[in-house]
Amino acid sequence: MFDNVDALILARLQFAFTVSFHFIFPAFSIGLASFLAVLEGLWLKTGKQLYLDLFKYWLKIFAVAFAMGVVSGIVMSYQFGTNWSVFSDRAGPVIGPLMAYEVLTAFFLEAGFLGVMLFGMERVGRKLHFAATCMVAAGTATSAFWILSVNSWMQTPVGYEIGANGQILPGPSWAAIIFNPSFPYRLLHTVTAAYLTTAFVVGAVGAWHLLRDRKNAHARKMFSMAMWMAALVAPVQIFLGDAHGLNTLEHQPAKVMAMEGHFQSHPDGAPLILFGIPDQEAQTVRYALEIPNASSLILKHSLNAPLKGLDTVPLADQPPVEVVFWSFRIMVGLGFAMLGIGIWSLLARMRGKLYDWPWLHRAALIMGPSGFIAVIAGWVTTEVGRQPWVVYGLLRTADAVSPLAAPAVGTSLIAFVLVYFACFSVGTWYILRLMSKAAHPHEGGIEEDQDAPIRTAGITPGPTQNPGGRKLPADREQ
Question: Which residues does the annotated region (Disordered) include (predicted)?
Fold first, then answer.
C-alpha cells in the first residue's frame, strides 16, 4: 500500500507524529513541576493544609504525565538511527554530545529525586522533600535547556567546521554552539509557553469544580493562582514571541515570509495579512484580508520599511507556506485569547467576582487545552518553516533520511499510530479522571500497594517490619 509513496514523506510524518505526542507531556510537566514546588513552598511557609492538599492532588497527575513523557521521549532518539541515519552521521558530532548532556544532567537529576518527591513525604524531613521537589522542577527546566539548544543550533548553526568526509564537526568553542543566536529566544518562549499551558489546565480544573460548587476552597485557590499566571505571563509571552520573531527574521527570513504570507516583496511597506488562502503554486494569497503597512510596523517598527518576499527565495528553498501560515495564526490567536482570559480575570478580581462569574469559568474551562494546541502549532511553525533544511543552510531534509523503502517506514508509522493511541489514550483518560474529582481536605498522596514486594528479586531477609514500619503478611515474613 506504500509502494507509490515517498519514503521521505513517511519518515517526516512519523517523526512529526511522535514528536507532537511527546511534546504535549513535557509542555505540561515542566510547568506542573514548578507549580508543585510553589505549592509545597507555600505550605512550608504558611502551614496551611490547603496548599498541601493541592500539592498531593496535582502530584498524582504529575506522576502520570511525567511517565508518559519519558516513555514517548525514548522513541525519539531511536528514530535518529532508523529513519534519519544520514543526519545522525553528518550532524552527530555536534548533536550527540548535546543530547548526552541532557541525559547526564537533567534526566539523572529527575531520576535521582523523583522517587523522593513521589513517595518520600512521610520518610524524609519536610525541607529535604521540598528540596527534592525543587530538584525535579530544575531537572525539567534543564532538560528543556539542552533539547532547545540542540533544536536552536539546527535552526541557526554556528561554531562548526566541515570535516574532510563532509561531517559537521564542533569548532573550538562549545559555548558558541550551545548559546547559538536563536537559543535564548526559543528557550524563553518555549518555557514560558509550558508555564501558560499548565496554568490553563489548572485554571480549567478549578473552573470545572467552581461550576459545580462555588464554595469549594481548593477550586478557588487553584483557579485564582492560575488566573494570576494568565494575567501576568500572557503579555510577557506575547512580548517574547515578538522578540523571537525579530530574531527569526534576521536568521531565517524565508520562515517569516511564509508566516506572513509574503510571496511578493514590498519596497514601500508590507501589509499584515490576517487571513487568506496561500497558493504557493501561483505565489499569492487568495482572498487576503489585510491591514496596510502593519507587517512592516511589527517587524521593522516603521510603517514604510521595505520587506522582502518569497520572490527573492528560489522555489526549491521555500518552506510549505500553507502549513506555516495557518499554524502561526493558530498559535498567535490562542496567545491573544489567553491574554483576554487574563484581563477578564483581573476585571473579575477587581470587582470581587472572581468566583462568581460562571461565564468566566466556562471560558476558562474551554481554554483548558489551548496551551497544548498553541505549543504544537508553534512547534509546527518552527519545524515546517525550517524546511527544506534539517540543519539550516547545511543539510537538506531530503539528504538526511535513511535509505529505507517506503513500505518499511510506512509499517512502522502504522505501528506507532496504533500503539500510541492505545497507550496514551488510556493515560490521558486516567489524568482526566483524576482531574474530574475535586480536591478535598487532607488529600491522599500517591498510595503504595500494600501487597507489593519490598524488593524486586530475591528473598527479603531480616525482621518482619519493613522500613516504613508496616507489618508484613504472614506469607512474606520468611
Answer: 444-478
Domain ranges of the chain: 188-392
Enter the pTM of the model.
0.87
Q: Which three cell numbers stand for residue 443?
A: 488529600
319 near 386, Cβ under 8 Å? yes
| Model confidence pLDDT, tens digit, residues 85-116 | 899 999 999 999 998 998 888 888 888 898 89
In the structure grid, which three cell numbers stand for residue 359, read together? 461565564
Q: For residue 462, count CB atoms less than 10 angstroms from its CB and return exposed for 0-12, middle for 13-18, buried for 19 or more.
A: exposed
Round to whole Å and give the CA distance between 273 and 276.
Answer: 7
Decide: residue 163, CB within 10 A, 0-12 exposed, 13-18 middle, 19+ buried: exposed
In angstroms, the Cα distances linking 425 to 156, 262, 476 are 36, 39, 36
Q: In Å, how far are 125, 325, 330 from 381, measured between CA atoms?
A: 46, 8, 10
CA distances from 294 to 94, 333, 403 (A): 40, 17, 46
Query: Which residue, among 202, 262, 280, 164, has the nearest Cα to 35 in the 3D structure?
Result: 202
> Under a CB-based contact definition with an 8 Å cutoff, are residues 182 and 150 in contact?
no
Q: How far is CA 362 from the centre of its chain?
A: 25
Q: Cα Rg for the chain, rounded, in angstroms?
A: 25
- DSSP 3-state of 377: helix
Instruction: Report the residue count for the chain.
Output: 478
Residue 455 clears pLDDT 90, i.e. is over it = no
Distance CA 458, CA 460 (A): 7
User: Looking at the predicted structure, is the pLDDT value of residue 244 above 90?
Assistant: yes
* Predicted confidence (pLDDT) per residue in 164-216, tens digit: 888 999 998 999 999 999 999 999 999 999 999 999 999 999 999 999 989 98
